[in-house]
Amino acid sequence: MRALVIHGPNLNLLGTRQPEIYGAQTLGEIDRAIAARASELAIEARTVQFNGEGEIIAQIHVAPPIADVLIINPGAYTHYSHAIADAISAVGLPAIEVHLSNIFSREPFRRTSVIAPVCVGSIAGFGADSYLLALRAALFVATGK
Ligand code: DQA
What we know:
The protein is α/β, with parallel strands linked by helices.
């Protein structure tokens, strides 16, 4: 089982970006935790980060031959990028939406996700562990177990 984890804009700043909201771990540390959990679950995980909407869309377009499941934290694009939602629909890979913070307990604009309707499910509010929970969910999506 192959999972492609896409981190969206500003997540490269994790560690110093509002640690009271997003935690103290850097993206490198999170990616290492993802790699460790993926190996425990026998998942082949690849992680990428892009700040640009077009770069995220281009990565989604080339995902089908290299991934069985997408795990995506679209950052602020979550709240308005119909283009990313369309890309997920277009390639037809099952996708899991991830957020470090609980977007439903924050500012009103964060309570809407235009990505959620094209995903199998969403995991939000568990800090970096949201990604690790998403790996488990990806296994369930791909294998039914
Ligand atoms: C986020 C939540 C978004 O609202 C925000 O713009 C982010 C991070 C999260 O992981 O909690 O960049 O996706």
